[in-house]
Amino acid sequence: MKIAERHSERTLSRKEFLDLMDQEFAAGRALPLTVTGSSMEPFLRNLRDQAILVSAENRPLRRGDIVLFRRGDGSFVLHRLIEKESDGTCVVNGDAQTWTERIGQRQILAVAEGIVRRGRYISCDRLCYRRCVRMWGWLRPMRKWCFAVGGRLKRFLKKLSGRERRRSPEK
């Protein structure tokens, strides 16, 4: 787990991470976690963005929240809460994925109250953010194609900008 501490980052073992999380949450502080992996793209980018985590006990869970949970194998995962069922089961999903996963509410360790992207804080409570999350949720069945089209468009624009640079201006 990559943790940002006073403008520096360090990688922690699972036990160190749990201990630090317990310590920070007990003191009423949030914990910045640098995102690793691509399951939460496009909302969270690998090694660029940070999720600002708070205790799941101090924040009611809502559809669309980014939650940190622990799988049965001990791994930590940051995914989005899709649905909370009446029996306490939570349905989660990575933003870059089309499938869902069912977890127990007790597996949820923390909730993101905000995101830091390129030094700018974005609250997960902002109306604009929540609307974007809702629209992205509607696109879940089509995400595979969204990423394919987006990737092709990105490659096309990159190729196009390379051609423009090679051309010398005529005078």
Can you give a write-up of this model?
With 171 residues, the chain is of the alpha+beta class. It is 29% helix and 32% strand. Strands 1, 2, 3, 4, 5, 6, 7, 8, 9 and 10 form a 10-stranded antiparallel β-sheet that branches. Strand 9 and strand 10 (120-123) form a beta hairpin. It is globular. The model has no long low-confidence stretch (mean pLDDT 85).
In short:
The protein is built from three helices and ten strands, in the order ββαββββββββαα.
Blueprint (SSEs and pairs):
Layout: E1 2-5, E2 8-11, H1 14-26, E3 31-34, E4 50-55, E5 66-70, E6 76-84, E7 89-93, E8 101-104, E9 108-117, E10 120-123, H2 127-138, H3 143-166
Tell me about the largest β-sheet.
10 strands, antiparallel
Query: What is the helical fraction, as a range of percent?
Result: 25-40%
- Secondary-structure class: alpha+beta
Radius of gyration: 19 Å
Q: Quaternary arrangement of the chains shown?
A: single chain
H/E order of the elements?
Answer: EEHEEEEEEEEHH
- Head-to-tail CA distance between termini: 55 Å
Strand portion, in percent? Answer: 25-35%
Unreliable spans are none
pLDDT average, as an integer?
85
Indicate the overall shape.
Answer: globular
Number of DSSP-assigned strands: 10
Main features:
29% helix; 10 strands; 3 helices; alpha+beta; 171 residues
